[in-house]
Amino acid sequence: MTVATKLMLKGGRVVDPATGTDGIFDVLIEDGVIRQVAKDLPVDGAEVYEVPRGAIVAPGLIDIHVHLREPGQEHKETVASGTASAVAGGFTAVACMPNTNPVNDHAGITQFILKKAAEAQLARVYPIGAVSLGQKGDQLAELGEQKAAGCVGFTDDGYPVATALLMRRALEYAGMLGVPIIDHCEDPSLKGDGVAHEGYTASALGLRGIPGVAESLMVERDVSLAELTGAHVHIAHMSARQSIRAVRAGKERGVRVTCEVAPHHFTLTDEALEGPITYDTNLKMNPPLREAADRDAMLEGIVDGTVDVIATDHAPHHADEKMVEFDRAPFGIVGLETAVPLVFDRLVHTGKITLPRMIALLSTNPARAMNLPGGTLAAGSVADITVLAPDMPVTLRAQALRSKSKNTPFDGWTFRGGVAATIVAGRIVYRA
Length: 432
Ligand SMILES: [Zn+2]
What we know:
It contains 13 helices and 19 strands. It is of the alpha/beta class and about 425 residues long. The strands form 4 sheets. Strands 1, 2, 3, 4, 5, 17, 18 and 19 form an 8-stranded mixed β-sheet that branches. Strands 9-10-11-14-15-16 form a 6-stranded parallel β-sheet. Strands 6-7-8 form a 3-stranded parallel β-sheet. The longest helix is centred in the middle third of the chain and has 17 residues, at about 215-230. It is globular and about 65 Å long. The two termini are about 20 Å apart. The protein binds zinc ion. Zinc ion binds near residues 157, 158, 184, 236 and 237. Zinc ion binds near residues 157, 158, 236 and 237.
C-alpha cells in the first residue's frame, strides 16, 4: 500500500473504545502509522485534513463478512469494485469469504486475492480460507499453508461446516494456528429448500419456510465443540432468537465464542416481504429476515454485549440473477454502503447504543475477533481511520452504489448519519 508522508487530522472528536479516548484531539500520521493523538499538535509540514464540524474520528471500520466474488464471478463484484464499495461505506478493511470459483481452499487463490487487493490500493483485504477442500465438507483444507499465505480464519460460508467431526478437527487445527473458525450455522435437513423465515408471513405468501431452530441447533453444536476443544468459534450472521440464547449461555460458561449480526437482521422483519413490492428478491437472504421477536433479540444482544460484531454479509448479485421468481433468486444483498447509515439511524440516534459501542461493534471488536491490525488509534497502530458524520443526511440510491451490484432493499431510504472520509495507511481513499 502506498503511504502519504505526513497527514494530520485537525480538530475532530476522537473516539477510540480500545484506549477509552473520547475528546477533541489532533491525530498525526507518519509513514502509514499513527504517531500521536494529542491536543493542538504543531502542523510541522504535514498535509492537513480539517475534520468537518461535528464529525467523529474513529479507528477504521472492519467488515469481517464480505463476498468479493473474485475469482470466478466478476460480473457480480471484483476485489477492486468491492473495496471501492468498502471505503465508500467507511470500511478500511474487509475479510472476504472463500466461496469463490474456484473456492479459496489453497494458497494460490489467497495470493491471487491479495495481489488484486494490492493493485486496487483501497481497503485492506484479509482472505478467509475454506475449512474443507472445495467446501465439500469432506476433507480438511491445508489450514497451515493457507494461514501462511495470508488467511486470517476459516469457514465454509455459504454452507455450514458439514459435520461435527469436521468442525472438531477444524477447531483443533485452527486453535493451534491461533485463528478462528467462522460458521454459517444452518442444519441442512431443517432448512430444506426453504426460502423465507418459517412463520405467518411465509405461510400467507406461500413460501417454503426455514425455522430459526435450523440455525440455533448448529450454533449449539459449535458452542459445545468450542468448549470441548478450547478453540475459538465465531458465529456468522445470526438471525434467530434461539441462537442469541445459545451464544449468551456459552459466553456465561467461558466458551470462546463470538458472533456477528448483519444490519438487515436488526432492521427488517419478514413482514417486509408483504410489500410495497411483494416477493421482492432483494429481501431474500440466508439466513432469512425473521419475525419481530427475532429482530428484537438481535437488538437486545447488540445492547447487552452478547453480539460482538456488526458485519454486513455483503453478497452482491447481478440484477439479472435477482430478476426472477422469489423461489429461484439467489440469497443475499449488498451491505457495505448501507451499514453505517443503518447503525447510526437505527441504533445510535434511537439511543439504543452509544457512539463508542458503535465503534466497538464495527472496528475494535472485529479486529480482536480476527486478530487483525487496527481497531484502535493508539500510537504505533496502522493509520486506518474512518471519519464519521453522525448528522449527515443520506438518501440511498441503489444505482449510485460503488458496488458492481445494486441488490439492496434500502433503495430510496433516508438516514441520518454517514461517512465523511476513509483513510487507509495514512492515505485518504474516500471523501464524501
Ligand atoms: Zn453465510
